[in-house]
Specification:
Blueprint (H helix, E strand, L loop, with lengths): L1 E5 L3 H11 L4 E5 L2 H10 L4 E5 L7 H10 L6 E5 L4 H9 L4 E4 L4 H11 L5 H7 L3 E3 L4 E5 L6 H13 L6 H23 L4 H9 L4 H11 L4 E7 L3 E8 L24 H9 L2 E4 L5 E7 L1 H9 L1
Helix pairs in contact: 2-3, 7-8, 8-11
Length: 301
């Protein structure tokens, strides 16, 4: 397994190399620009990067290699305990996040788990955490917010298998799935209100951990129906929660101060998908996206 490890602290790089050199093929980088050049020239199985880096920070580094079409999975390490930053990192597709100081044995456990990443989706079925039924693709998920990347990957994999599917179809769907699944998990399953989320973000409470603790004790599920036909992609996401009033959610354009807490997910979803409809209770959302290739042909005509 080839790993690119990026950190500007020499002691951490040396410690990582000594700990893993006999187990993996490890390449080191001390800043974001060096890491970008290495990732552009060589293929890695996993990238582990600090956020606070000189020349290019960790987020900029990941964004630049993604712009080149590089889809190498990445794991983030950081000394910043900002909860919103952590949420954004997971929504970018991070497989995990470690806060400094961290133990190498814990990092090793996550890397070893990642070696079986190809069967991560299978494990969701085998544990009974996700149920798949015949006919349409239907999933009932007893969720954890930290596994949202696996849920999104599971759903989009079915879309990617369609002969009509193109990358232009997957990108907006992934963005919307991250936002709407996160809303369903945080507010529908965990029962977190927007005011509770605001208080967590303003304090030192680990919001992601709190959400997963609530999910663990709540006997609630997120239900996803995926329907593919000749016209496009239909996804229905519902949860067992009490719902919400769409009118009560602030528009982040009109109220930028609320952008990090309320309305952000709904706003981003509507920016990426033309048709999004909520039920009256507010615990079910239906979205539709026509296939890119179909839309292009219609525009030509």
């Amino acid at each position: 397994m080839k790993i690119l490890f990026v950190d500007d602290e020499e002691t951490i790089r040396d410690l990582f190399f000594e700990y893993f050199k006999d187990e993996f093929q490890v390449t080191m980088a001390s800043d974001g620009l060096e890491a970008f050049e290495l990732a552009s020239k060589s293929q890695f199985d996993l990238i582990i990067s600090d956020i606070s880096l000189p020349k290019l920070n960790g987020i900029q580094f990941i964004q630049k290699i993604r712009a080149l079409g590089n889809r190498t999975p990445f794991l983030i390490i950081t000394g910043d305990s900002d909860i919103q930053l952590a949420i954004d990192i997971f929504r970018m597709g991070a497989v995990d996040l470690f806060l400094k100081p961290f133990k190498m044995v814990a990092l090793r456990s996550r890397i070893k788990k990642f070696e079986t990443a190809d069967i991560d989706i299978v494990s969701l079925y085998s544990t009974g955490e996700v149920s798949n039924f015949n006919g349409e693709y239907k999933f009932s998920i007893k969720p954890q917010i930290k596994k949202i990347n696996s849920y999104v990957g599971m759903i989009t994999q079915h879309i990617a298998n369609s002969p009509i599917s193109e990358n232009e179809d997957l990108i907006p769907i992934k963005i919307v799935l991250y936002e709407l699944l996160a809303n369903a998990i945080e507010h529908g399953v965990a029962g977190m209100s927007y005011s509770q989320k605001q208080k967590c973000l303003e304090s030192n409470i680990d919001y992601l951990k709190l959400v997963d603790e609530h999910c663990k004790t709540a006997n609630r599920f997120v239900h996803v129906t995926l329907h593919l036909d000749d016209f496009g992609i239909t996804i229905i996401i519902s949860d067992d929660g009490n719902g919400f009033s769409l009118q009560d959610v602030p528009n982040p354009i009109e109220n930028p101060a609320a952008n990090l807490v309320s309305g952000r997910g709904i706003f981003l979803a509507k920016m990426n998908i033309e048709s999004i409809v909520y039920n009256e209770k507010g615990n079910e959302v239906r979205l539709f996206k026509p296939w890119t290739i179909k839309s292009a042909k219609l525009n030509q005509n």
